[in-house]
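Kinase-like protein
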Amino acid sequence: MKSLLWDRDGEIQELDPYPESFGHWEVGQPLDETQSNVLRRVEAALSLKIVEFEVRGEYRNLVLEITFDNGVRGILRTQRLQFLSGEARSLSEVVQVLRREIAIQRWLKSNTTLPVPDIRRVVEPRNSTEATIIVMEKLPGEMLFNTFGGSTYAVKERVMLEMADVQLQLYKLDMPQRIGTLQVGDGDLGVAPYVRKGRYDPAPQVYDTLEDYLTYVIETGRLSLAEADEDIRTLGLRVLNRIAAALPAIYARLNRNVHRRCVLTHADLNAANILVDAAGRITGVLDWEYQFKDPTHQVWTSWHCSPDDAEKLRAVYAEAIKSKDRECWEALVDGELLRQLVEWVQAGRFYPLMEQWVEAVLQGL
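Structure:
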């Protein structure tokens, strides 16, 4: 069965679904050295034998769906430190991202009703060459990426209503009012410098105001152009300067507490990290490796439906938020332009398209 997506021209595309497995193993078959080491450590920690697994991911993290000899299934996840060592300034930054994720996921499990996997065991490394291993429960449901495009409109609407409930739960959590990455300590919540999705090096500091944070975002965008071709660098700097010039007028519109309130945001809530059942109910919100605490972000996956459905579903989502929490709705609606600007800048590419969009939306600012 194909996954249905729509491109930026509104044309439907049929793509192969995200694979259910990148490899199968069962008892008696050979293992590579990394897999063998990981399985031995988990088996020793849990006093259970792993008899089968499916490889769910093997890029930055090795992710296995494992089956124990008692029939129980789970998800095993560990960082590939040898691979990641080239993507961070130090391995300690890589390890810190995972340690923070473990603490946040456990905190969410205890303090919300979000369908977050229960962490059943953390297997600590015995030396500097080994990585921490997480063993989690296997949640039911199918990956939204594979199902949403081909679902009926009624199912898509149910997904949007469920996504609104996720947004509202995150919005209502009592968070420290500083901009950065949430840090769960012993009984308290703190804020660490922001770590962007796909990165391990943190921002230089925690930010107290929206203005300070956007100054950092714009300056990071400028620095990223240092080694670009001259024409791209010139275009990129022109676009960034245009955005920076418009920011004071945007800040003036976002002058109420509701616009500045920091909330917890799942920074990688794409359709591959959401599980749903056949009726469109969300059964899993996965992969809290990257999260952020900032003025409210909106949860949306526009590329998985037609332009007509997208417009209607956005209205369904907004009305669901508005009917349950008007302040959350105001933050989402009023802050949409600024969120989009940040997303464009942090994408760090497509400057010709970005310039067209910026000139269209910033007229009069």
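The chain has two domains: 3-137, 142-361.
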